[in-house]
Write a structure and sequence with these properties.
Blueprint (H helix, E strand, L loop, with lengths): L3 E4 L5 H12 L3 E6 L13 E5 L5 H15 L4 E4 L14 H29 L2 E6 L12 H22 L3 E8 L21 H14 L9 H13 L6 E4 L1 H12 L2 H12 L13
Helix pairs in contact: 1-6, 2-3, 3-4
């Protein structure tokens, strides 16, 4: 019997690419999104497209129950749905922060809570929580977004020990910056990105430095391939950077003393991208 995976946020980006990859490799795929769009994928008996909004618990319950009814089980659950947001923190509204946490943090926690009983009864299963490379190296102008993802880093590590006692693996995939995804569009409901005049010059230099980044940026396929490896490697490894930029940051963080690593990030965000190149000690 093919393995079955449920993925949230499949209307675009990492979720869509991951769903397509698992389908191509013979898995049963439950592709969920807030507004189902059947035309996104080729028709298949191994594909079930369902509505799911992680901020609406009833849709979580329905998607899990419908997926089990169709395929008999869920082996892997990928929490991919999320929203991004740029802005100088002093100007970010309480409403925007709460909406970020409702989706990126509380929604992911609710999804984990919803799938664990099924996996606990089976004594097996893998939960993959998609965070971000900001969980490795926080960057300026995304403090609230970083906080919402950092929370899931700690949550997932704690839950990995807790769920591991029941035969359930909990893992983290950390995508890097992916300019071709809908990161900005998905946060449109939160309003314009607030960058007050005092920050404008710094922000312009930072954004320019990001155009000269020392590695390739992350692609949807990069993340899909790492999600597949995470789901299938059969290990208890916890964190999986995805994309050249994320891998670079993880390697630097592991190789350098904290203050030196922070200095590299400060240099990069001050428009000196060459300073973030890998340490000669590696």
């Amino acid at each position: 019997m093919p393995s079955t995976i449920l993925i949230t946020g499949c209307s675009s980006g990492f979720g869509k690419a991951s769903a397509s990859l698992f389908l191509a490799r013979g898995w049963n795929v439950i592709a969920t999104m807030r507004t189902p769009q059947p035309g996104l994928f080729e028709e298949s008996d191994r594909l079930l497209i369902l509505p799911l909004d992680v901020t609406q618990p009833a849709t979580l319950t329905h998607a899990i129950e419908a997926g089990i009814a169709r395929f008999g089980k869920i082996d892997v659950f990928v929490n991919n749905a999320g929203i991004g947001y740029f802005g100088a923190h002093e100007a970010v509204s309480d409403q925007a922060i709460r909406q970020l946490f409702e989706t990126n943090t509380f929604g992911v926690m609710a999804a984990n809570r919803a799938i664990i009983p099924h996996m606990r009864e089976r004594g097996a299963g893998t939960i993959i929580n998609v965070t971000s490379s900001v969980g490795i190296a926080p960057m300026p102008l995304v403090a609230a977004y970083t906080a919402s993802k950092y929370a899931i880093e700690g949550f997932s590590e704690s839950l990995a020990y807790e769920a591991g006692m029941l035969g359930i693996r909990v893992k983290i995939v950390q995508p890097g910056l992916a300019p071709t995804t809908h990161f900005s569009a998905n946060s449109g409901a939160l309003g314009d990105y607030p960058v007050p005049p005092a920050y404008a010059g710094h922000a312009a230099r930072y954004f320019q430095s990001m155009q000269e980044y020392p590695t390739n940026y992350t692609t949807e396929d990069d993340v899909a391939n790492v999600v597949y490896a995470t789901a299938t490697d059969g290990t208890d490894k916890l964190r999986y950077p995805a994309g050249d930029d994320s891998v670079m940051l993880a390697e630097l963080r592991a190789a350098l003393p904290e203050q030196e690593f922070i200095g590299r990030i400060r240099c990069m965000t001050a428009s000196e991208p060459g300073k973030i190149e890998a340490s000669s000690e590696e």
